[in-house]
Amino acid sequence: MTALLRTVVLAVLIAAFVSPLNPPASASAACTVDPATPKRQLRAMWISSVANIDWPSRTGLSVSAQQAEFRAWLDLAVSKRMNAVVVQVRPTADAFWPSPYEPWSQWLTGTQGGNPGYDPLAFMVNEAHARNLEFHAWFNPYRIANHDDPSRLVATHPARQHPDWRFAYGGKLYYNPGIPEVRDFIEDAIMDAVSRYDVDGVHLDDYFYPYPVSGQNIPDAATFDRYGGSFADVGDWRRNNVNLLVRELDQRIHAAKPHVSFGISPFGIWRNAGTDPLGSRTSGLQSYDAIYADSRQWVKQGWVDYLAPQIYWHIGFSTAAYEVLTAWWSEQVRGTGVQLVIGQAAYRAGASGQEAAWQDPAELSDHLHDNRQHPEVSGDIYFSAKDVRADRIGAFTRVVNAHYTRPALLPARGSAAAPAAPAITSATRGPSGVQLSWTGSGTSYAVHRVDGTPAAADPCFFADARNLIRTTRQTTFTDTTATGPAYTYYVTALNRTHQESAPSAGRAVTSSTPGGFSVVVDNADAGFAAGSAWGTSTYSTQLHGADYRFAQPVAASDPAWFRAAVPSAGSYRVEVWYPADAGYNSATPYVVAASGGNRTVTVDQRTGGGAWRDLGTFTLNAGTYNVVGVSRWTSTTGYVIADAVRITRV
């Protein structure tokens, strides 16, 4: 699918960036925006706790093991340039925090009501914010248990204390959505987390009334008789019960904390056009009729800040085509102020038993190409974290390489005033890169880098993310990729709902090297080449760029080569970057194609990773050629790693 460049009129940019330091451009001026590097886009993954799908990986882990696992999920999100996580904190009428309403979740310790020894929700929010990831707390409203035996619930469970609140259906236990006291209780349980923790969002999934089970009826006839009021149709009454929960939660969340986002990820089909002319050109299960979820009304009434329909089908699927539903949902949110993000089926990509379309490494990436046709689509959420990590058939790597090459700001919510522009207080080159410091009043900051030393900031610098290199909640940052002769840095501030300030005054940094030449070649760049024996990994957080390469040692060179254009013969400092690990090689051979013959330097890759390491100064010939190689020929054990090299004229 072709990525067409779109032209964006500068009126919006002028309004956002007018300041004494950034005079307005002509109203007729325009910026050419690259759709592959959008300025704003929600990028998230679901982290499921029910049945230990993602986290914790099993019950009974120690506190340190649980926390290490969760940090690894967040580090994965950062490495894929995501900016949010959606974490299940109330999977089965239980809690991942010390709730006064419901017991501790069994998925933590293996025993419902068992204290895990710390406050997981407080820990998770803090760790997410430390990485500038939004934390959306995910609640399942009605599900009590994935079994139908109330005696298996802890004795203090509200569903045991109020047996009239529950019903069994399809082998599971549910709270009865038609009972007003149940609705109040569910809202209170959710609001306890909202009021006590610094969450950025409240998220409900697609489970409302239970999905239909053949031959069974939902046992709520007596409830309908008591509370049905003027409703002649039980379906309309059930939809109203769900609508009341949605509407009241929306009101209560924003009354307590206006900055908290409220979103729902409904089943992908509202109704089919064959049933309702307002529906989509599909023929699958209708959530309006089957689970009484009137998701279209939630949008039209503005009861949600965002909707994330689970469009878990491939492009061209006859029953429910991805491109058909994306277009339909885009039409529903248009003009409403409700943001649309797409629930993506990462779990299907490359998985055994899935349709042929899902065995194509491009399918998931093609979904995001389709999204670009709809300006209403403001991002994607992937189900689930373990499938993002698995990266079967390289499907998610393709998503990152085609769509997530740069960071992205989160879509702005509401109409709060933007913060004041920050001020860069220092920008200096050091051995590890350019070190920046600034002052400001933002919740977070965006760091932009432009080549050269322009006299003034062009609003087009900030029209998309091509110059965005980092978002952070800190007021310092070291740009380890700053290897060119001259850059100018700008910092913008963002508030809690992501309104962005005008940019700071630019701060220029020039090369400290006499020749002014320095180049970095990463393993993801065109100048890198390696044979099929070299794998790709994102395991270590010390990586340079998006990933790195690894291979087993063998009695053959089979080098991974870093190719560079050396401008003139002379002396050059050669540095290498690699992630370190105790399991990596203690004598990895680096080969430098120096004038007069190759020279080999061995490096212990078990230590000293995550920074530039100096191999020495070498005389290099002019020209474009393989300058540095990583050989596999070593007698020591452990993976040899190829990540990045830096070549600097001295």
Short description:
The chain has 650 residues and is an alpha+beta fold. The chain is 21% helix and 27% strand. Residues 1-27 form the signal peptide.
Account of the protein in words:
The protein is α+β, with helices and mostly antiparallel strands. Helices cover 21% and strands 27% of the residues. The protein is built from 14 helices and 32 strands. The strands form 8 sheets. An 8-stranded parallel barrel has the order 3-4-5-9-10-11-12-13, surrounded by 6 helices. The two termini are 45 Å apart. The model is unreliable at 1-29 (pLDDT under 50).
Number of helices: 14
Cα radius of gyration in angstroms = 27 Å
Low-confidence stretches: 1-29
**Helicity level:** 10-25%
Question: Widest sheet: strand order?
Answer: 3-4-5-9-10-11-12-13
Largest sheet: 8 strands, parallel, barrel
Share of β-strand residues: 25-35%
The average pLDDT value, as a whole number, equals: 93
What's the count of strands?
32
Q: What is the straight-line distance between the termini?
A: 45 Å
Structural class: alpha+beta
* Gross morphology: elongated
